[in-house]
From TrEMBL:
Annotated keywords: DNA-binding
Molecular function GO terms recorded: DNA binding
Lineage, broadest ranks: Bacteria, Bacillati, Bacillota, Clostridia, Lachnospirales
Protein name per UniProt: Transcriptional regulator, TetR family
PROSITE patterns (UniProt xref): HTH_TETR_2 (PS50977)
DNA-binding region(s), chain positions: 29-48
SUPFAM superfamilies, per database record: Homeodomain-like (SSF46689)
């Protein structure tokens, strides 16, 4: 691809980002993106097969990186046998969880507009169910975590599994709120630490309650 072609492609992507952020994936028009980028629609289609590919190009990096993070958490929890995930030293565990989550939150803020595209503008695109996809994977992990303890196994019924799903979705969406509510970064650390403490003691208390 030539230098001029790269410049054109980057200009198309910048204009597409604005169009998608303002109108969402479904209502965005390739013709209006072309007009804003001062190119023909044909020029856009030379770089991108369709509107879907254009949108996904903008979010591909953050989408795939986030799923890699989820996979890493799943792998680490599985290696631990889903036992002692919360551990005994509460303060150290909360600090470790906070540091890990803040690494991802920092990544979200570094790619703020791309996450806005997914969360706010993704309806109708291939990433429309991004949050639900993550929630479902974390729910499966948390159900196993709830089912296995050092002393005995707990059989969760369908209603209890739904409870785990609801609690898990609350956690995942609480992280997304940083973007959805445009929370200032200077406040994000305190907000996330409160969320982590709430989740940590909540899950720990719930697991002890289930073991009674």
């Amino acid at each position: 691809m030539s230098y001029c072609s790269d410049i054109t492609k980057n200009r198309i992507l910048e204009c597409a980002k604005d169009e998608f952020l303002n109108k969402g994936f479904e209502k965005a028009q390739v013709a209006e993106i072309a007009e804003a980028a001062n190119v023909t629609t044909g020029a856009i289609y030379r770089h991108f097969k369709n509107k879907e590919e254009l949108f996904y190009t903008l979010v591909k990096e953050v989408y795939e990186y986030t799923l890699e993070i989820v996979t890493a958490v799943e792998s680490r929890t599985e290696k631990a046998g889903y036992k002692n995930v919360l551990g005994e030293n509460d303060d150290e565990n909360i600090e470790a969880m906070f540091a890990e989550v803040m690494d991802f939150v920092n990544y979200m803020y570094a790619h703020f507009e791309e996450f806005r595209l997914i969360f706010e503008s993704g309806k109708g695109s291939r990433v429309e169910n991004f949050i639900d996809e993550i929630v479902n994977r974390y729910t499966a992990k948390n159900i196993k975590m709830m089912s296995i303890s050092e002393s005995k196994n707990i059989e969760l019924d369908e209603e209890e599994e739904l409870e785990v799903h609801i609690l898990t979705k609350g956690y995942v969406t609480s992280l997304c709120e940083c973007i959805l509510h445009n929370i200032p970064y200077d406040f994000a650390g305190r907000y996330i630490k409160n969320i982590i403490a709430f989740q940590y003691y909540g899950w720990k208390g719930l697991m002890k309650f289930k073991l009674k």
